[in-house]
Amino acid sequence: MLKESSPQQYQLEMVTLEELVPKDHLVRKVDATIDFEFIRDEVASLYCHGNGRPAIDPVILFKMMLLGYLFGIPSERRLVQEIQVNVAYRWFLRMGLTDKVPDASTLSQNRIRRFNGTDIFQRVFDNIVEQAIAKGLVGGRVLYTDSTHLKANANPRKAINVPQPVQPSAYIESLNAAVNEDRVAAGKKPLAPSTTVKNKDTKVSTTDPESGFMHRDNKPQGFFWLDHRTVDGKHGIITDTHTTPGNVHDAQPYISRLERQLSRFPLSPVAVGLDAGYFTAPICHLTEQLDITPVLGYRRPNKGQNTFQKKHFIYDEKQDVYRCPQGELLIYKTTSREGYRHYHSTPQICQSCPKLKDCTQSQQTQQVVTRHVWEASKERANEIRLSKWGKKVYARRKETVERSFADAKQHHGHRYARFRGLMKVQMQCLLAAAAQNMKKMALLALLRRLLRAIKALGEDPNGHMSKLIIGMMQSRENNAIATFGR
After folding, report:
1. Which residue of 81, 85, 147, 399 is most buried, as measured by CB atoms within 10 A?
2. Where is this region: Disordered (predicted)?
3. Which pLDDT score is estimated for 484?
4. pTM strictly above 0.85
């Protein structure tokens, strides 16, 4: 029977927020797992203690921002509206039903005036990582790194071409030292540091000049930011996130960010998992210098115009020469500033070679093969990639860092940059990564409590439920490192 709706009720009801928030709500799990009180000490130097109006509790401010990233709320105005009507959010912030929610401008002005130019967001992220390490959720044995793009808040058609100096490689000092050492060993003069500054026409956005114009294969074209993220192989906890413009190569900031993690956290990785974009001689060599094994993906090089490619020329390490497919030798001549050793064939021999047209189109009838001064490290990394151990370690990459990016884009608003400027986008990446870590830590803590409860009750005689929960918690890395002795 159809009934008419009851009139609006105005009677007084005695309720508490504790009763209204579901027992299995995510905010309860996060609140039981993460200690946020450290925030007050971290920001104490940014507040005046003996003057001015009483400030809003900084713990509430940061928990509000983290709520926005935890539940993928795209703007601070929308976030304030959600907190006003969501009792779970109020419970998480320790606010009553009638307490006034801080205005959206309070969040933005604190970001712009109080927190701007500080590393407070980095310190908040680092502290959450430390809490994960203290709870045993970070193994630190294998670290996986990759980058993903965030669309910049910039119109690709509003841009100008500006000549800008070409930035040197991040590893230029180490490379210069290796080049001069190689030249001296070969009896040649060391090269003086280059003072030439090259300029390159660069497309710069007039809306967000700090973003970068990205032009990559199989990637969208336009103004983007890159989030370079490192994820631990045990449970997928994010241990580092770093933002660069979209036109920065993935390999550029890698070593410096790896060294920062090793100095900031008690991590002792034996291997790192990287995709083919990182498969460069400097990455392979400098990772080995840190006593870490690089496990990298491979991208087939583009085929040149000649039938014979570099792979057809065999390097003889004892004689330090290359041997061409016809058995002739290519002799070392010099080492360039870019770090490549040049091996030249003999033109008189090449002129009479029946395979000359398959080998080179040079008018001097001479073939030149280059070899990087750190090429041996790259060859060792390639051998590791093809090993059984290397394949197991690399296979775990799609379940860690790629899954982390997918979760960030799908649930935490990581497809688009909410702000303009490097510092603000870096803040977005740090808070999104912190929110993901909080969520994962809360869910793993819940699984641990369930496991302890099952063992305490003793109601799982065959161990099926315990095995299920343990399987959910354990890494699918299958102890590859211990098994293969690395």
Report:
1. 147
2. 191-213
3. 35
4. yes
